[in-house]
């Protein structure tokens, strides 16, 4: 549905945007989740379930728990991210207050309970995760289901500034070859993260515009302007901003086209 369609309730637009963003995020991390799940032994089903939850693959997680006869866990998983997270958090607190020895509960099961309770930092203890999945965990299991996207992005940004969220690495580093000889300075985020910050910024002046439109946001090659040039063109076309001092992008793309013999495009 288009946002200007008469069929869309404007009060529902924030929820529609959130749902569509959630679908995009699930698709973006799906391959990483599947790679990690396939590398595990099938006997580690609790760990498999946790990995599935990091990609919001609830159906697969519920089916796996049910197939192992873990019906109660399957019921909890089916409601993951709902209004019952406060109840799970309260139950965990009661266990701690009453002196329950958590050594008698599988470590991975406790990790699942922590995640379902919304305590994502407790769930990620001794567990490394990429920034997109962390953002997903924050949105899916920690924050209210009706919180609009700008507030979610601002929450992630605050956590990141305080050192409690992963660095939004550019995709060519985050998902690039492990042995790639890439010299990266932590000054540039992933392009998609810049777009999130731009959306969260609303009508205000976006201070990271020039950094966003740097080649290092999309590639390790400082002379490769094709991605950021197209992104700038799209953002200008939809009226997000008007760039008056970014002629370097035009000149950079022209030079790049000339170097590869595409003079007619230049």
Automatic annotation (TrEMBL):
Q: Name one GO cellular component term.
A: nuclear pore
InterPro entries per the UniProt record, alphabetical: Nucleoporin_S59-like, Nup98_C
Q: Enumerate the spans annotated as Nuclear pore complex protein NUP96 C-terminal domain.
A: 47-266
Give the protein's recorded name. Answer: Nuclear pore complex protein NUP96 C-terminal domain-containing protein
Q: Which organism is it from?
A: Flacourtia indica
